[in-house]
Specification:
- The chain starts with a helix and ends with a helix.
- The chain is 48% helix and 18% strand.
- The protein is an alpha/beta fold and 496 residues long.
- The radius of gyration is 30 Å and the shape is elongated.
- The protein contains 20 helices and 16 strands.
- The strands form three sheets. An eight-stranded mixed barrel has the order 8-9-11-12-13-14-15-16, surrounded by four helices. A five-stranded mixed sheet has the order 2-3-1-6-7, with helices on both faces.
- A hairpin with a 2-residue loop joins strand 4 and strand 5.
Length: 496
């Protein structure tokens, strides 16, 4: 890499010298013509490794041009190759596709090895590298042979077929590639996700085609079949997502994003001692945007810290106002996976509580179980420090992820919130009732308070009370309200 850097640096200096010496040309037109020819030749030389044509060079530039030609020849042949697998890399793929344009037939296929990082985590990077090399060999040996195979990054591979592939062919292709590998006498299974673009329907320039196949792969990640095709309206969805990401900081600054608060009912007293803070966004052009849409985009764009810090400030500032007005509440706020990755999160929470002069028990942090399970050890370390402050902790949406009740004993939380999905079939389905009741009993025997979300009818409320639930949250008791509206309803909620 160091030698390549020296070559590239030398090229830059030489090209700069060419621009300085432009003054020696007789006219601006001749300068432009020569530079255009030079740029074309340089690009062609990089792609096909051909020599430069000395015939177009003015006499005074011949020595400089010879030096430039030799430096270009010294560039490694592997510039467009992936060192690990020997396949074409992203740069080589784009160059090759560009040389084949226009492409109005065939299929572009993008393959992702699902959760490949777990292979590295479990067995080490050497093991993972062997898997990638074996996967590349398997791609090269396919009976349905693509014209072009490239490795784009760690676990993504791109294939170009000159023919239009049917769904049956793609299913067969995936089945062939998912046959378990044997690495150091260890069987390794992989699951693949595949995005496709039919170029006869959606041909475009190289960058556009790669962007579209990437959109198709994103759809495949949320598809049960794990295979998805680019469709015309996918561009519209991506533009919407980009607009949301771009607008989010302004939305926070201009109060387009705001908090509403949903009261929780304490079963023992019938009163409200807790509320959950929920984010809302009324975009001036896109309308109402749900947290389920913009929070994942904020995480993807690396802006979740901005959102979480804003949410904590909003909640604690409101808490300070309520306490000054005699309203004593614990307010719960949701944090994300990325928040738990921050080693300074406990200190930041402590600093904010001190700034707003609030006791730690006035704040509850809710974390989804999928967030906890992503890195249980690290999450527990962070949560231990937060709980040591006196801040209450809750597992949100319990039962909807991939954890089990066995993990509960490891978690330093005060409360388990059971997701409303458990209530869907409660009235007609006895097994659902048994599972819900068992979950409540185990959580309570482990010392946790239990809250159930999504209560909409008196019948469901009464059945949950009979099961021993501590707190209920849902439209039956109270809808989400702005702070001022909650203040107006405080006497009713608290039975004053």
């Amino acid at each position: 890499m160091f030698e390549i850097g020296l070559v590239v640096a030398s090229l830059i200096l030489l090209i700069f010298s060419l621009y300085i010496l432009q003054a020696k040309y007789r006219s601006l037109r001749s300068q432009q013509k020569f530079l255009a020819q030079l740029c074309t030749q340089l690009e062609q030389q990089k792609i096909e490794r051909q020599a430069l044509d000395i015939g177009i060079v003015p006499q005074e530039f011949a020595p400089l041009y010879h030096t430039l030609d030799e430096l270009l020849k010294a560039l490694p042949v592997s510039v467009g190759k992936d060192k690990l697998t020997g396949l074409v890399n992203r740069v080589g793929l784009k160059r090759t596709l560009a040389s084949m344009m226009p492409l109005t037939q065939g299929t572009l296929v993008l393959i992702d090895i699902y959760r490949f990082r777990y292979v590295n985590d479990l067995f080490g990077f050497v093991f993972g590298d062997i898997l990638l090399k074996q996967f590349a060999e398997r791609l090269n040996s396919l009976s349905l042979s693509p014209r072009l195979i490239a490795r784009l990054n760690g676990d993504e591979f791109c294939l170009y077929y000159e023919q239009a592939l049917t769904e049956e062919q793609l299913v067969h292709l995936r089945g062939r590639l998912q046959v378990p590998f044997s690495i150091k006498n260890t069987p390794v299974s992989v699951k693949l996700q595949i995005g496709c673009v039919h170029l006869q329907e959606h041909h475009a320039d190289t960058s556009q085609m790669l962007r579209r196949v990437d959109l198709a792969l994103k759809k495949a990640r949320h598809s049960r079949s794990a295979i998805a095709y680019y469709a015309e309206n996918d561009d519209i969805q991506q533009l919407r997502e980009l607009r949301i990401i771009d607008s989010l900081p302004k939305g926070l600054q201009r109060n387009q994003v705001y908090m509403v608060y949903q009261a929780k009912q304490d079963i023992a007293t019938g009163r409200c001692f807790q509320v959950e803070a929920l984010m809302r966004w009324e975009h001036d052009e896109l309308g109402v945007i749900s947290p389920g849409e913009f929070i994942p985009l904020a995480e993807y764009a690396g802006m979740i810290d901005l959102v979480s810090q804003w949410a904590l400030d909003q909640v604690l500032a409101q808490q300070a106002k309520w306490r000054a007005a005699g309203i004593q509440l614990c307010v719960a706020v949701n944090l994300s996976t990325r928040d738990l990755d921050s080693e300074t999160l406990p200190q930041e929470i402590a600093a904010r509580l001190a700034y707003y002069q609030l006791p730690p028990e006035s704040l509850m942090i809710e974390i989804t179980e999928s967030t906890l399970m992503a890195d249980l050890t690290k999450a527990v370390e962070t949560l231990d420090k937060i709980r040591a402050l006196g801040v209450r902790l809750a597992i949100d949406d319990f039962g909807t992820g991939h954890s089990s009740l066995a993990y509960l004993k490891h978690l330093p939380v005060n409360e388990v919130k059971i997701d409303k999905a458990f209530l869907k079939d409660l009235e007609q389905d006895k097994p659902s009732e048994y599972i819900l009741e068992a979950s409540i009993n185990i959580a309570k025997k482990l010392g946790y308070e239990v809250t159930v979300e999504g209560i909409e009818t008196l019948e469901i409320r009464d059945r949950l009370v009979a099961m021993g639930v501590d707190t209920l949250q849902g439209m039956y008791y109270a809808k989400p309200m702005r702070a001022a509206e909650l203040e107006m309803n405080w006497a009713k909620l608290h039975h004053i």
